[in-house]
Amino acid sequence: MKAGAVRRRVRGSLQLQIYMLACRDVMGFVPDLATMVFVRHNERISVSYSDIDLNVCRETLEGLVNQVQAVDPEQITTTHCARCRFRQTCKHSTAQESSAKRVGAKKPWYGTVRAPET
Description:
Blueprint: H1 3-11, H2 14-27, E1 34-38, E2 43-47, H3 51-70, H4 96-101
Antiparallel strand pairs: 1-2
């Protein structure tokens, strides 16, 4: 992918915009740049966002939240639940019963806590 196309994808990334929005709305400042690091390629791409960009991001997030909240969990038909790492804690998971019945089922990564070895 060419450098200009990569920069456009990074600039369009909701991830960076959400970080910048949080800086503005929670911490009270907006950094000049947001940087996405591509570790595999040892590359950093920095972009800036205006207040207008961040307001559009907020509207996009609000729209997505409204879409999620409007879904009736009883109407969800998906095969994703069986593979989702949150299936055991999600109250809407259609895979809870089947995954709980499996003998030797692995615990999800977020539910495994080990005490430090002494």
